[in-house]
Amino acid sequence: MNKDLKVIFMGTPFFAVPVLEMLNLNTQVCLVVTQPDKLVGRGKKLTYSPVKEYALKNNIPVFQPRSLKDEAKTILNTPCDIIITCAYGQIIPDVILNYPKYKCINVHASLLPKYRGGAPIHWCLINGEEKTGITIMYMSNKLDAGDIIKEEEYVILPEDNVSTLHEKLSQLGANLLKESLKEIILKTNQRIKQDENKATYARVLKRSDEHLDFSLEGQKIINKIRGLNAWPLANFNLNDKECKVIEAYFVKEKCSLPNKIVDIKKDAIGISCQDGIIYLTKIKPFGKNIMDVKSYLNGVVKEKLYEATIS
User: String of b and e for 175-198 (b: at least 16 CB within 10 Å)?
Assistant: First the structure.
């Protein structure tokens, strides 16, 4: 890698930090562009993005525009050879896309053109995909539709959830970008047009997406639990109070009616679904901390759970 390569990096969440770290070790990061600080929690504490925290610790200048369209001057006045983006969170205007010598390159957490958009890791799990991966691509003025430079596939394991996949793909993205940058600088990289007919989208999750429907097939329910763990977490209503689900497993068997607690083990609560039983093993009851179900059962009357309303 070329330490003289001048880079502007644009990113925000933890997913982007390994990419920034790789660039900081192998190139000259002149500027980090990240989303404005947010007020978080009941105390409304002003919180930096993970990317900003890394930049400040490593003495990299930080720029936090509310609108790139209106505040592009800082970027355009920063000499650079290439702009790298990873989970930044804003549309990048043409004036910035066309600014650097080697253009703008994006690290995206899916095998494009599938799962364009802001939540590809969540949706690939929710939809029960067997594989995902990382795409290194040129940016365009259309969402995640630029030419593909390089892709690397990852086979999703049964135990993977958003948290584990997030960590694995972020490191995969950093490594694949490092390989790709050498080719981009030498101008030996591929430039493959995306097939628009195969494009799918991974929109940002809505609150309603987090709710579990126990009238569905068991595997679909498990996929959603995995696809929302460790954030924002799947939920259902237990006696009209929200209960979040962290871990569960599915046993396929005949069930007469879904949405009923039909089995209670020492470490699991079984709720009937369309084609079997979903056994909850780790939950967050309303107003309480995350706990294993064994601990939860120590504080309730088990017999009354069979009469509970599930919705």
Answer: ebbbebbeebbeeebeeeebeeee
Whether 25 and 56 have beta carbons less than 8 Å apart is answered as no
| Order of strands, sheet of 82-86, starting from the edge strand that comes earlier in the sequence | 62-63, 28-33, 6-11, 82-86, 104-108, 131-138, 148-155
What are the tens digits of pLDDT across the range 129-176?
999 999 999 999 899 999 999 999 999 999 999 999 999 999 999 999
DSSP state letter for 90: S
**6-198 CATH pick, 3.90.650.10, 3.40.190.80, 3.40.140.80, 3.40.50.170:** 3.40.50.170
Query: What are the φ/ψ torsions at residue 155 (nearest 5 degrees)?
Result: -85, 120
Give the separation between CA 181 and CA 175, rounded to whole angstroms. 10
CA distance 51 to 20: 8
